[in-house]
Amino acid sequence: MNIKYIDCLEVGPTLSTKCFEEEEFERAYKEIEYVANENNIKILNQPYYHVMVDYFGGTAFEIYAQVDLDESEVYG
Question: I need a surface site. Which of 36, 58, 65, 73 has the fewest CB within 10 A?
Fold first, then answer.
């Protein structure tokens, strides 16, 4: 996996999910892809964005997929 630190990242719109172990990444990707397919949403960039955050004494991973939505779909 190619991981690098980025101080600030702004990406949107996205679909996202959380997991707690790196071994859960594949499940998280499939979950995002399922939701996108069920809602006719196109995922733009892969690989996905991974954000590691402190979570109740441990860490969690937030995984984001940038999606293609126009404003009417977001605000309609």
Answer: 58
pTM of the model as a whole: 0.77
Nearest 10 degrees: CA dihedral of 6, 51, 47, 65?
-120
* 28 vs 76: CA distance, rounded Å: 28
Domain residue extents for the chain: 14-70
Do residues 17 and 63 touch, judged by C-beta distance below 8 A? yes
* Cβ neighbour number for residue 45 with a 10 Å cutoff: 13
Identify whether the C-beta of residue 17 lies closer than 8 Å to the C-beta of residue 29: no
Give me the tens of pLDDT residue by residue for the chain, a chain 76 residues long: 667 777 887 878 999 999 999 999 999 999 999 999 999 999 997 779 989 888 888 999 999 999 998 755 554 4
